[in-house]
Design goal:
By secondary structure, the protein is of the alpha/beta class. It contains 9 helices and 11 strands. A hairpin with a 5-residue loop joins strand 7 (about 165-170) and strand 8. The strands form 2 sheets. Strands 3, 4, 5, 6, 7, 8, 9, 10 and 11 form a 9-stranded mixed sheet that branches. Strands 1-2 form a two-stranded antiparallel sheet. The radius of gyration is 18 Å and the shape is globular. The protein has helices spanning about 10-15, 30-40, 55-65, 85-105, 120-130, 180-195, 205-215, 230-235, 255-265, and strands spanning about 20-25, 80-85, 110, 135, 145, 155-160, 165-170, 175, 200-205, 220-225, 240-245. About 45% of the residues are buried. The longest helix is centred in the middle third of the chain and has 21 residues, at about 85-105.
Length: about 270
C-alpha cells in the first residue's frame, strides 16, 4: 500500500501522535541513568566509540537537550521526558540528503541494525532503494560469530543478513537486539583482509553506526533519547547525522517517515 508523503507539519503531528517524538515512552530516570553510564565509559553505552571529551553526566544532559530535545533542567529527575519533533524533522532532512548523495555517487554501502523488531523494514527498504539506484550493498562478515560478555550470559551472536541488512542472531537463529560494535569491526576487518577500501557509508544505529564512525567510515543513524553515545559522536564529528527518535515503536509508524525521506532524497519510486 502506498503511503502518502507527509508535509513537515503533517509529519510533526504524526511523530507526536505516534510518540516517536514529543512525549516519548522512555522515562527521565532511564535517560539520566544512561547518561551517567555513558559518562563513566561503560562499554555497553559507548556503541564502540571512544569520545575525546570528558563528557560528565551534566555535559551529556546539556548535549541531549540541545541535539535531542530532552528536558534541559537538571532538577527534573523523574517522570516524563521528551524528544523535540522539530529536531527529528531537521535531522531526517539531513539523513535524506545524505542518502540522496549516496545514490548520486553510487556509493558502496553497509546497512545494519541493532533493532530487528521495530526498524528492520526501514533498513530493508533503504537497502532496496539504494541498490536500485546503482549503489553496491556490501555484505561482509556474514556468518561471523562472537560471544557476548559473561555478564550478559556468555551467549553467541552471529552476523546474518536478511536481504542486504546485517543483524545478529542468537544460538537459535532468532534476530536479537544489540548495542555491540563487534559485528561492524569484523566487517571492516574482512574488507581490509580482501584489500578492499572502507565503505563509503554505513546506515544503521547503535554499535553498527558508532563502530563505523570510530573507524572513520561515514555513518548516519537513528538514536533514542536514552542512547547518548551517537549524539556525542555527532558532536565530535565521528558520525555525520543522528536522528533523534524513539527507535522501538510499532514498525508501521515509521512508514510516513520513510515516505518523507524517500521523497526528499528523490528516491520515492519504490513503495515504502
Amino acid at each position: 500500500m502506498t503511503v502518502a508523503v507527509p508535509t513537515p507539519s503533517e509529519l510533526r503531528s504524526h511523530l507526536v501522535r505516534g510518540r516517536i517524538a514529543g512525549d516519548v515512552a522512555t522515562s527521565r530516570e532511564n535517560n539520566l541513568r544512561h547518561y551517567r553510564l555513558m559518562s563513566e565509559r561503560h562499554p555497553g553505552h559507548l556503541f564502540g566509540l571512544e569520545p575525546d571529551g570528558r563528557w560528565n553526566a551534566d555535559d551529556v544532559l546539556a548535549l541531549m537537550a540541545r541535539r535531542c530535545g530532552v528536558v534541559a533542567d537538571p532538577a527534573h529527575r523523574s517522570g516524563q521526558d521528551t524528544i523535540d519533533p522539530d529536531l527529528t524533522i531537521a535531522a531526517l532532512d539531513a539523513y535524506a540528503d545524505r542518502v540522496a548523495l549516496a545514490a548520486k555517487r553510487r556509493e558502496r554501502v553497509i546497512v545494519a541494525t541493532g533493532h530487528p523488531d521495530g526498524l528492520q523494514e526501514w533498513y530493508r527498504t533503504l537497502a532496496r532503494v539504494l541498490r536500485d539506484a546503482g549503489c553496491t550493498l556490501l555484505r561482509p562478515a556474514a556468518g561471523w560469530t562472537y560471544r557476548t560478555p559473561t555478564a550478559e550470559g556468555g551467549q553467541s551472536r552471529t552476523v546474518r543478513y536478511r536481504g542486504d541488512v546485517a543483524m545478529v542472531v542468537d544460538d537459535t537463529g532468532d534476530f536479537r537486539h544489540t548495542h555491540s560494535a563487534r559485528g561492524v569491526r569484523a566487517m571492516l576487518a574482512e574488507l581490509a583482509a580482501r584489500n578492499e577500501p572502507l565503505p563509503d557509508l554505513l546506515i544503521g544505529d547503535h554499535g553498527w553506526a558508532g563502530g563505523a564512525g570510530q573507524a572513520g567510515v561515514p555513518a548516519i543513524g537513528f538514536a533514542d533519547c536514552n542512547d547518548p553515545a551517537l549524539f556525542v559522536a555527532a558532536e565530535e564529528g565521528r558520525v555525520e547525522v543522528v536522528v533523534p527518535l524513539d527507535d522501538n515503536v510499532a514498525p508501521h509508524l515509521y512508514k510516513p517517515l520513510m515516505a518523507y525521506v524517500l521523497d526528499r532524497s528523490g528516491l520515492s519510486g519504490i513503495n515504502p
